[in-house]
Amino acid sequence: MSVDQQTLTREVERRRTFAIISHPDAGKTTLTEKLLLYGGAIHLAGSVKARRASRHATSDWMAIEKERGISVATSVMQFEHDGCRFNLLDTPGHNDFSEDTYRTLAAADCAVMLIDVAKGVEPQTIKLFKVCRFRGIPIVTFVNKMDREGKAPLELLDEVEQVLGIPCAPLTWPVGMGKSFQGVYQRESKRFLRFEREERGKRAAMEVVSLDEPALEEAIGTGSLKHLKDEIALLDDAGNRFTEDAFLKGEVTPVFFGSAMNNFGVEPFLDRFVSLCPPPHARKVDGAELDPRSPTFSGFVFKIQANMDPRHRDRIAFLRICSGRFEKGMEVKQLRTGKKLSLDRPMMFLAQERTTVEEAWSGDILGLWDPGNLRIGDTLAEKDMPSFEGIPSFSPEHFVRVRLGDPLKRKQLQKGLSQLADEGAVQLLKERDELFVDPVLGAVGWLQVEVVQHRLKAEYGVEAKLDRLPYTQARWVFATDGSPVDVAALTKAASIECFLDVEGRPLFLFENDWMRRRFEEKHPDLLFVAAVQPGRAKA
Ligand code: G4P
């Protein structure tokens, strides 16, 4: 397909694909909603659903999320702002879904790290931050809930620097907090934005004044103004310098302060974020770099979700476009199998709304209706090329044998488990000798197992009982020279359990860390790996 290079470059340059990372309860759902509001995607944030339901913003899909008040699924939302097209990838905050989040971050070009001013850096923040770092994703920080009492801003930034090891460069600076929160000073434009409490859900009124205007002193008081001036002088003098280059390299994080719930600081954040968040960058394929502006269409599947809409009983694969232009109905190749697929029903998402897409560009996320062909990590491309890297499966830490209440439901169970395993929620493991009919599942987090049990019932009508197996660790085992591993001999000698993953690779299970280490030490000739790439014989 011929693509006008100028149009392609223009469209790619205006794409912004990012994710928000945070510990649960920091306000991710609230911020998402407000960003969509400013992007014009929702007209009145908070009015999307009734007050109680708005605890679960428009991106939460599944019943279990509502019951538990956690965000399980990763969804994608799009909005426009200031001439740019944003793709916001929602990530589950719960620890047990970090694998899902990890895959989602593979599709993001930038991350917003949301921190609760009272709680500071929390465990899940640390985990997700590390993933972003590992992937080289630049991070913008938003300190939320300034309308509540919390840590002093300087102390908080020090905590971020100490715990996460990234220098902070505040681009806005708050005056007061909690009841005495007065607003934020924008260091780049040297303007002060005043905070005025408004009715919940409405845009906060903002007055913009310069530091030297007498009206400011009158409004925030002589003491607060002096304090602000002192802190700004300190930051100008001794603070970290912000440069775009250092930010893109992940060497500094620009910091904003605000209150998502009160809509305060969100708009100036978004206005600046447009220029901070980089457009799609080159992706690694087989050691080389693929330019997002190259005309041939390509992308990779980073998430699969079955029954996203229970009324439709469908399965959607999420594809991150990495180069070229997508056109509805176009024929692409699935590189893993060599199969040709016609992408007739591409979708984009606005929370629960789906719209059919006529065209999309590098950086965009497409939802593809999938009858069961696609897998996480699959590369789809217009022409033959090497596959994209970077969506590994992690070794599970929880194992269960699934028993059926009603043996007549075995077919539904198989279907359900194979679909849910394709989604990457759990790993379906096969016994080598196939003595047992009851399947075994492995998961990185226990909650994933519970979600699968819940979804088997809700979506497939299968009542499944779970028998927990005593293992806590697993490793894929490969021979260093690439030859097949003699699994039978190894398991017999050490009375160790080994299952096969969906690709037939041996996964050894251990009851504890000590047993794993002992086994590894006994076999220096073997390679023990905790994460594997799909479609590869090796790690
Ligand atoms: P999450 O997705 O990161 O888990 O957080 P979520 O947005 O659901 O927010 C968690 C709680 O924090 C919610 O309160 C939300 O209203 C509140 N919150 C979010 N932003 C701010 C803020 O800027 N200031 C203050 N004071 N609170 C904020 P909740 O009581 O759990 O739910 P709800 O009754 O408000 O719906």
The CATH class of the largest domain turns out to be Alpha Beta
Mean pLDDT across all amino acids: 84
CATH-defined fold name of the largest domain? Rossmann fold
Strand order of the largest sheet: 18-17-23-14-15-22-19-20
- Bulk shape: globular
Number of helices: 14
Give your account of this protein's structure.
- This protein has 539 residues and is an alpha+beta fold.
- The strands form seven sheets. An eight-stranded antiparallel sheet has the order 18-17-23-14-15-22-19-20. An eight-stranded antiparallel sheet has the order 28-25-27-26-30-31-29-32. Strands 2-3-1-4-5-11-6 form a seven-stranded mixed sheet, sandwiched between helices.
- Strand 30 (497-500) and strand 31 form a beta hairpin.
- It is globular.
- The protein binds guanosine-5',3'-tetraphosphate (G4P).
- Guanosine-5',3'-tetraphosphate binds next to helix 2.
Mind sketching the topology for me?
Blueprint: H1 5-13, E1 15-22, H2 28-38, H3 63-68, E2 76-81, E3 84-89, H4 98-106, E4 110-116, H5 123-135, E5 139-144, H6 153-164, E6 168-170, E7 172-175, E8 183-186, E9 191-195, E10 206-210, H7 214-220, H8 222-238, H9 244-248, E11 253-257, H10 266-276, E12 283-285, E13 288-290, E14 298-306, E15 315-323, E16 325-327, E17 331-334, E18 339-342, E19 346-350, E20 353-356, E21 359-361, E22 365-369, E23 379-381, E24 393-394, E25 398-404, H11 410-422, E26 427-431, E27 440-443, H12 446-460, E28 464-468, E29 473-479, H13 487-494, E30 497-500, E31 506-510, H14 513-522, E32 526-529, E33 531-532
Parallel strand pairs: 1-3, 1-4, 4-5, 5-11, 6-11
Antiparallel strand pairs: 2-3, 7-8, 8-9, 9-10, 12-13, 14-15, 14-23, 15-22, 16-21, 17-18, 17-23, 19-20, 19-22, 24-33, 25-27, 25-28, 26-27, 26-30, 29-31, 29-32, 30-31
Helix pairs in contact: 4-5, 7-8, 11-12
Bound molecules: guanosine-5',3'-tetraphosphate.
